[in-house]
Amino acid sequence: MKTYTPITIKTIHDTLRSAAFAVSAVALASLSISITQADETCLSPYMPKIKGQEDFVYIWTLGVEGLGDEQDKMVTVDVNPKSKQYGKVINSLSVGGRNEAHHSDFTDDRQYLWAGGLDTNKIFIFDVHSDPAKPTLTKTITDFTAKSGGIVGPHSTYALPGRIMITGLSNNKDHGGRTALVEYTNDGDYIATHWMPTD
Predict the structure, then answer these.
(1) Global confidence as pTM
(2) Are 114 and 105 spatial neighbours (Cβ–Cβ below 8 Å)?
(3) How many Å apart are CA 56 and CA 38, to the nearest integer?
(4) Sign of the Cα pseudo-torsion (50, 153, 161, 37, in order)
(5) Tens-of-pLDDT digits for all 199 residues of the chain?
(6) Domain segments of the chain as ranges
(7) What residues have CB less than 8 Å from 160, skipping those under 6 apart?
(8) Residue 20: enclosing H or E segment and its boundaries?
(9) What would the CATH number be for the domain defined by 54-195?
């Protein structure tokens, strides 16, 4: 029978403790990666198209009485750390009035950014690919309620292949909870309204 000296037992104990620590660290790292990846439940499936550092962030801002031109606007901020303009507003594009600026989102090809106005039911489509530093307003949808069959409050936009799906807050008949998903092409042409079930 082999006998172990106190030094050998200490060495075995230290080795086992190191191995247990390493296994725990790997398990914890795996868990934190899973949690990080699962954090956002509403990301577009087109997010993987983003490669590397983003150069700009587009902020759809609410017009406020008494501030600036008081209009909703698309603000562009340079977020590339290598840029001399890093962290600065480099462009601001007013849309003519206050519309209760709310959510915005890219089309699946990231060529356009759609932004909704809750109060006026207008949807603004910005070209962000021709000159990403200076987006242009290419289209304003003013007949959202009429085309959709009565949906009001364009709320969120979600990219689909070649299309955009828009959620509405309510309807113009009873202003109750019944609403729909409204589908448009990336260019802003109406496709269909998909009413939510009532039961």
Answers:
(1) 0.75
(2) yes
(3) 25
(4) positive
(5) 555 555 555 555 565 565 555 555 555 555 554 444 444 445 566 666 667 788 999 999 998 998 888 999 999 999 999 999 999 999 999 999 998 888 999 998 899 999 999 899 999 999 999 999 999 999 999 999 999 999 999 999 999 999 999 999 998 998 888 899 999 999 999 999 999 988 7
(6) 1-40, 54-195
(7) 108, 183
(8) helix 6-37
(9) 2.130.10.10
Cα-flanking dihedrals φ and ψ of residue 136, to 5°?
Answer: -120, 150
Distance, CA of 104 to CA of 74 (rounded, Å): 10
Say if CB 192 and CB 164 are below 8 A apart: no
**Which tokens go with 123?**
């949807």
State the Cα–Cα distance between residues 173 and 146, nearest whole angstrom.
Answer: 12
